[in-house]
Design goal:
It is a single chain. By secondary structure, the protein is α+β, with helices and mostly antiparallel strands. It has a domain at 6-154: 3-Layer(aba) Sandwich (Aminopeptidase). 26% of the residues lie in helices and 29% in strands. The chain has 14 helices and 24 strands. It has helices at residues 15-26, 35-43, 47-52, 94-108, 123-128, 159-171, 203-216, 220-230, 237-247, 348-357, 385-391, 402-411, 416-421, 508-516; strands spanning 6-9, 54-59, 65-74, 77-85, 113-116, 132-139, 147-154, 186-188, 248-253, 265-272, 274-278, 287-290, 297-300, 312-318, 321-324, 341-345, 359-363, 369-377, 427-432, 454-456, 467-473, 480-489, 500-506, 518-528. The strands form four sheets. It has a seven-stranded mixed sheet, sandwiched between helices. It has a six-stranded mixed barrel with strand order 10-23-20-22-21-24. Strands 12-16-11-17-18-19 form a six-stranded mixed sheet, covered by helices on one side. A hairpin with a 5-residue loop joins strand 17 and strand 18. The longest helix has 15 residues, at 94-108. The protein is globular.
Length: 536
């Protein structure tokens, strides 16, 4: 007999009950002597785990905890890290409901694959849920534990939609890809070549690195460095420097292809805006921030061309045809955005800037603060409004900074919408609880960003979660900014190499620094020792 359940974000106050449930569920099966005790230590869920994973409680009609499920985000896929059901309720459909929830979550976020390493007794359950045995076997991190099989579920788009996209490709709506020639963008370096490496306070980046490691530990090349990192007890600067030099090798990131060797690139800054808003429009609050509209189609092109893994087409259906989605200027005419307004704010420019940053906070009249997180984008190309003003002779290149753009728009308010519409790209948001106000927004890796230690990158060149050493200068200054950072986010304007967007944090001070930052810098990818370099 199945039971009705609710699946809600996991709360800190539920941690004792969650860990007790995992212990009962894990102990339901027979294990080699000593294995269970050691495994439960590794499986302990703490506050840091909740912050770095998408974690959910499964509650029955009486609000009793009957299950726990959590996923780890890994680039274009997710790993079902935990799925537990209290032993007394096994066989009542709770596990199936929780698994279906995760599958739907992955599809909503347009991930292409869902993986799981199930306990051997539960492998049959995952086969019934549509997973396939990949053939890979992963040893337990507990000595004497079993080998775990890696099961995968490929999240493909529907047949009708695939046919429509294939037609669009054939008709030239989307250019068919040429064979991709992989070119390395990395040059082996020595640690002494990293300016400021010996002086950096690595402790400031350590927790951000550990958060990424918890998500990366499933990958073969990351297993040894991440297991070692999670076991580190001495976090002195010397010990942490020795750890990185033991487990990683530095590679300078180059600009390729290029007729001349170029090892520097653009380093910009971004931040989490805080704006004033309301749930309903008024004479004061006139500009909406939207959730993804229901008519937005997102198609993973790897389903048609495997060499385009990670590339997606966004559009909408017009009869039986797939056509580009509405531009910024056209979007207000789309009936599908009606009712998708999450909040209304006072300034169209502030809404535009919040989209560029990809996340932000909105303070409501009640004093409540909500967080908006990047959910999707309309598929239109990003165009710089600063460049638009320069090309139209309104500003010089030196004047086309955010303070300069703001000043020009304040002097020419009648042209505000024209300038904003020059960028046809629109970002849609999800609303999530603010949680700890001292914790940053989640980046593309699904992990909260750390001010001053997280960067956005082009993941085709710098894999998400990788440590990077950055050598640049402070905003509008020649003072050095040389430090270890972690690649935990992406951005529509962050393409190529070397290229990074430096996360400054939340609020007005962070906004000022981000607005002024347009520096030249060098980047070194710190890659696991003896592992094959990433290809792009």
């Amino acid at each position: 007999m199945s039971v009705e359940v609710a699946i809600l974000p996991a709360r800190e106050q539920s941690l004792p009950a969650i860990n007790a449930l995992i212990a009962r569920s894990k102990g339901h099966w027979s294990w080699p002597a000593g294995y269970l005790e050691q495994a439960l230590v590794l499986l302990t869920i703490d506050v840091d785990y909740l912050r770095t994973h998408q974690s959910f409680e499964v509650l029955d009609a009486r609000s009793d905890l009957v299950g726990f499920v959590a996923i780890a985000v890994l680039d274009a896929s997710v790993v079902l890290d935990h799925l537990w059901v209290t032993p007394e309720r096994i066989g009542r459909g709770i596990g199936r409901r929780a698994c279906e929830y995760v599958i739907q979550f992955a599809r909503q976020h347009q991930w292409s694959e869902l993986s799981v390493l199930p306990d051997p007794p539960s492998e049959g359950f995952y086969l019934r849920m549509g997973f396939e045995d990949s053939g890979r076997r992963v040893p337990s991190r507990v000595p004497g534990g079993p080998l775990f099989s890696v099961y995968r579920l490929r999240l493909r788009v529907g047949t009708i939609l695939l046919a429509l996209v294939s037609s669009a490709l054939l008709l030239g709506c989307v250019t068919q890809p040429k064979r991709v020639v992989h070119t390395l963008h990395y040059e082996r370096a020595q640690w002494l070549q990293l300016p400021g490496w010996d002086a950096d306070n690595l402790q400031e980046a350590w927790n951000a690195f550990l958060s990424s490691c918890r998500a990366l530990r499933f990958r073969a090349e990351w297993a040894a460095p991440c297991d070692a990192a999670l076991a580190v007890t001495d976090q002195s600067p010397v010990a942490l420097r020795n750890y990185f030099e033991q487990y990683f090798e530095p590679y300078k990131i180059l600009k390729v292809p290029s007729s001349v060797r170029q090892d520097t690139g653009l380093i910009t800054g971004y931040y989490e805006p805080l704006v004033i808003g309301a749930r309903t429009p008024s004479a004061k609050f006139t500009t909406p921030l939207y959730a993804p509209p229901t008519d937005l189609l997102v198609v993973d092109l790897a389903s048609v061309y495997p060499e385009l893994k990670g590339k997606r087409v966004r559009g909408r259906l017009d009869g039986n045809h797939v056509v580009p989605y509405y531009t910024r200027a056209e979007l207000p005419t789309d009936p599908a955005v009606q009712g998708k307004e999450i909040a209304w704010i006072t300034s169209a420019l502030d809404a535009f800037l919040l989209e560029i940053q990809g996340s932000g906070r909105v303070q409501l009249p009640s004093g409540e603060v909500i967080r908006l997180q990047y959910a999707d984008q309309n598929g239109q190309p990003y165009r710089s409004i600063g460049r638009y003003l320069v090309e139209n002779g309104e500003l010089t290149v030196d004047q086309a900074t955010m303070p300069g753009i703001r000043a020009w728009l304040a002097a020419n308010p009648q042209r505000l919408q024209e300038v904003l519409n020059a960028n046809p790209s629109v970002v849609f948001f999800n609303e999530i609880p603010l949680g700890d106000p001292n914790v940053g927004p989640r980046g593309a890796q699904g992990i909260p960003l750390t001010p001053g230690r997280s960067i956005a990158v082009d993941p085709a060149i710098v894999p998400l979660g990788s440590p990077v050493f950055l050598a640049t200068t402070l905003p509008a200054s020649d003072a050095p900014l040389q430090r270890l950072v972690i690649a935990q986010d992406t951005g529509g304007a962050i393409n190529g190499a070397p290229r990074a967007d430096f996360f400054w944090g939340t609020g007005s001070d962070a906004a000022e620094k981000a607005a002024k930052m347009r520096q030249t810098g060098s980047m070194w990818l710190l890659w696991p020792r003896n592992a094959s370099l990433p290809t792009s």
